[in-house]
């Protein structure tokens, strides 16, 4: 689904976060027009960026390019803790004819090129890139006088190190078209997950045959459409369990399950806890 949250402000479209996957083990598939850089501080897990699945460990830097469909799942025994920087490329844009704009920024903004998705300690320039990420995160957090000037310089330095390490590739036009179709379906699921939904209905939205749609959907999400819908409903149920006093039956119906017993079974399979125990433990 498309993320609607605003990151930063119009004047300074940059935001930093420090978070973990203690309660929500999965950060569900979503995208935003901003770029995001995620540093894994502790734990391990999996990331999915478009059709690519990546194993994450401490120290890794995950690069989420503009518009990329992405999600993270933490290992249950090694919970992920991470820092991230989310920023709109307009912060670094220049006027027409500007060399940085024409050679790099515009390519990234128009999805004609993207940075490599994962940089680990074994990669060239890792130390410089990691150091610049930490400086960006700390600068935005501390906000010293004229920090916005320093931030822009640090971002340009980071991009330079990425380019010097040859961590930029051209994108595939067909992949971009396929991605748009899958995004359209995920947006529809996000808006209508409470309602009965069928694979036939979802494939009709994609303008592909049902067979090709099912194949494409699994490539981009790692799940069948039915499994994705079930898991999405279960994640929505978690929020209701934590932030409302509604009964388990009411929550099951609210998120699209028409059978409470089935909801409890699937919830326990996914979380190793019943809805009642989850609410009691996490509240």
UniProtKB/TrEMBL annotation:
Coiled coil start-end: none
Entry protein name: AraC family transcriptional regulator
Keyword Transcription regulation carried by entry: yes
Transmembrane segments: none
Domain HTH araC/xylS-type: 183-281
Species classification: Bacteria, Bacillati, Bacillota, Clostridia, Lachnospirales
GO molecular function: DNA-binding transcription factor activity; sequence-specific DNA binding
A Pfam family the protein falls into: AraC_binding
PROSITE patterns attached to this UniProt entry: HTH_ARAC_FAMILY_1 (PS00041), HTH_ARAC_FAMILY_2 (PS01124)
Key words, A-Z: DNA-binding, Transcription, Transcription regulation
Annotated organism of origin: Blautia segnis
Keyword DNA-binding attached: yes
């Amino acid at each position: 689904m498309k993320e609607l949250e605003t990151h930063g402000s119009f004047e300074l479209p940059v935001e930093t976060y420090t978070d973990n996957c203690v309660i929500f083990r999965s950060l569900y598939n979503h995208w935003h027009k901003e770029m995001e850089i995620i540093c894994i501080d502790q734990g391990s897990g999996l990331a999915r960026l478009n059709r690519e699945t990546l194993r994450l460990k401490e120290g890794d830097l995950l690069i989420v390019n503009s518009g990329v469909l992405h999600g993270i799942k933490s290992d249950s025994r090694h919970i992920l803790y991470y820092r991230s920087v989310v920023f709109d490329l307009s912060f670094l844009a220049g006027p027409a004819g500007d060399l940085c704009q024409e050679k790099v920024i515009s390519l990234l903004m128009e999805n004609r090129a993207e940075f490599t998705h994962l940089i680990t300690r074994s990669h060239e320039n890792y130390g410089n890139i990691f150091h610049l990420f930490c400086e960006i995160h700390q600068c935005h957090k501390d906000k010293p006088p004229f920090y916005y000037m320093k931030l822009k310089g640090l971002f340009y330095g980071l991009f330079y190190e990425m380019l010097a390490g040859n961590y930029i590739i051209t994108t595939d036009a067909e992949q971009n078209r396929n991605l748009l179709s899958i995004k359209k379906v995920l947006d529809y699921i996000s808006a209508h997950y409470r309602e009965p939904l069928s694979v036939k209905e979802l494939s009709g939205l994609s303008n592909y045959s049902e067979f090709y749609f099912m194949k494409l959907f699994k490539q981009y999400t790692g799940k069948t459409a039915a499994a994705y819908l079930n898991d999405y409903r279960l994640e929505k149920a978690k929020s209701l369990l934590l932030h409302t006093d509604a009964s388990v039956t009411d929550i099951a119906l609210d998120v699209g399950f028409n059978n409470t017993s089935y909801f409890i079974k699937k919830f326990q399979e996914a979380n190793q806890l019943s809805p009642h125990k989850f609410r009691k433990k996490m509240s």
